[in-house]
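Exercise (ungraded).
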Amino acid sequence: MLTSNEIPYWAGLSLDRPRVMGILNVTPDSFSDGGRDGGPEAAIEAGLAMAEDGADIIDVGGESTRPGAVAVPPEIEQDRVIPVVRALALAGLCVSVDTRNAATMRAVLDAGATIINDVSGLTHDPRAAALVAARSCPVVLMHMRGTPATMNAMATYRDVVAEVRAELLARVEAALAAGIARKNIAIDPGIGFAKLPEQSRALLRGLPAFTGLGYPVLIGVSRKSFIGAISGEPRADRRLGGSLAAAVFAALRGAAIVRVHDVRETVQAFRVWHSLLE
Ligand code: PMM
């Protein structure tokens, strides 16, 4: 079986080098960049700038999934993301949308999005898997337990790598059973989602248990609390150094795509690392 970064293509992107997904949160309360992006025009500008900086995918999100966050009604989520998705897709960018709601998935695919990124692994909305199957779109299945509101209390594992792997494989099996094509699936162990800092570390060290499953692996480490725990930096916006170290580490361990806030810096880090390998 091919490992994560040996798979030739996913979502139309060749995986011959680690790909960078830029995070564009269009929410008033995202944990690390809350309030920075004011309205659709500013978000569109920020997305275009990320593409200029070398992002391969722009991940647009209209619902905060930070620990303790409460769910946003799908209509509000759609009002936030659709103008941004439409403009970025029209500009020719590869757009993914971070959503758990089938109605939002349908609307963003109609607006030109390419990829659905579901932090619930298509478990939140019972209509989501059938929709993704019918639309034949690439999908990221992320692992978490509970919901953003409840997940912190569910971070109890005896063997975090084995349990997250098994639970993620169950999501993959459910997706396949719903008719989603194998070639469209990417997986993500969900760093920080129902994981304590020590468990997030263990998952990154244990990444080969995921990269060997035959699906591209996506990893989101950017500015997350485990970096704060390791470095002692309480402010998310001061975790760039740790985020770069973790992104390069994840890519070295076979992650095909990294999801980041700081696109320009991550692209530079990957370019330098790759040129030194040659
Ligand atoms: N992390 C966040 C949101 N969405 N999606 C995937 N696939 N993987 C992640 O690790 C992930 C995600 C939370 O981070 P943010 O609030 O900065 O977007």
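Further reading is listed at the end of the chapter. For now, observe: Residues 160-177 form the longest helix (18 residues). The pocket of pterin-6-yl-methyl-monophosphate is lined by residues 23, 25, 30-32, 61, 65-66, 98, 117, 119, 140, 142, 188, 190-191, 218, 220, 259 (CB under 6 Å).
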